[in-house]
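User: Can you predict the 3D structure for this chain?
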Amino acid sequence: MTETSEAAQAVARAHREEWARVVGALTRRFGDLDVAEEAAAEAFATAVARWPADGVPSRPGAWLTTTATRKAVDRLRREGRRAEKQAAAWAELAGGPAEPVGAVDDDRLRLIFTCCHPALAPEARVALTLRLVGGLTVPEIARAFLVQETTMGQRITRAKTKIRQARIPYRVPSAADLPERVSGVLAVLFLVFNEGYLTSGPGTGPVRPDLTAEAIRLARLVRTLLPQDGEAAGLLALMLLVEARRPARVTAGGELVTLDEQDRTAWDAGLIAEGHRLVRERLDSGVAPGRYQLLAAINAVHTSARDVRRTDWSQVVALYDQLVVLDPSPVVALNRAVAVAEVDGPEAALATVDRLEGALAGYHPFHATRAELLRRLGRDRAAREAYDRAVELAGNPAEAAALARRRDRLAPCPSPTACTAECSP
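Assistant: Here is the predicted structure, written as structure tokens:
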């Protein structure tokens, strides 16, 4: 491997691992997300140019933060504003004292609370966090939200402007405000985790372990802040139990593997044990579980079974019955139907799924679920059509390939006119 390629890999790795830390550190120092983001981007561009010739620094994060700070100071000097921030930055470069960091010394956690401030619209909170904390590009976020890149860029810009104009503080909320604010943070962390668990567009690979790891790291910090918060524990448990299955989720050829086909011996036993412990702690608390706790409990049932045939599907249905009360969304109803199919058969499940078509017509898991139920009922022609629609809608190439493989296992239909009863819709 050449020095240039090694340096390029080091820059890519540093971007995954250090982007949010650099942006967070500059936001704390300069109090401006635009300055922080642009200076961080310039620092990474400088690394691309210099690391192949100068070598990769021993502490890439520190190098990037120092370089980004200098870039920010240069920009502020050129613009002739914020003299006090310039002075503070120069004091830091000279070894002077930095401003207090508060009870939790983590710039990324402060950054995510800023991005998730209730003054921002919900979609802006998620988009801004994915950009500034997750490090996703605007095109990636636009694909996740199914909007145009220009629209997403404007949404992020408006969110940063709102933070500046409303003087939203860059800090972890006070103890009194923390419980109310944490639910918004958990929702965003779940979105970040999901983007890593199953990427939303081409060109990024089927999964992004950097994003799932970052979401888990931040979820651990929130759990530390609120050790008695059941939903903080539930979300962490959910992430751990899902992440535990990642080693078995992708084939050597890059195709996604469904839960029923995964090699369970490849699952991460340590993560499963930790997730199960958190679920048991919440059950023992005697407090009614919230949404994330129920989802974690469902995943605990799945990861407790050594074989898919040993899954306690009745327990899964019972947990979904509780979840539907808290979250009566079509997606939850769809997932419940999958479990119902294992308890009451595919015909009963299909009746529920078909009632969801109006709400989920553009949601590829709806068509994939329907295809599988139709296949089990021997209605191969209709199953093939449903698989075709699922493949068409799937945004992840690896997932589309897995769906196509399942479709291609179906017996070929001779022709619409010669189709047998077993092949007809």
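The radius of gyration is 24 Å. The mean pLDDT is 86.
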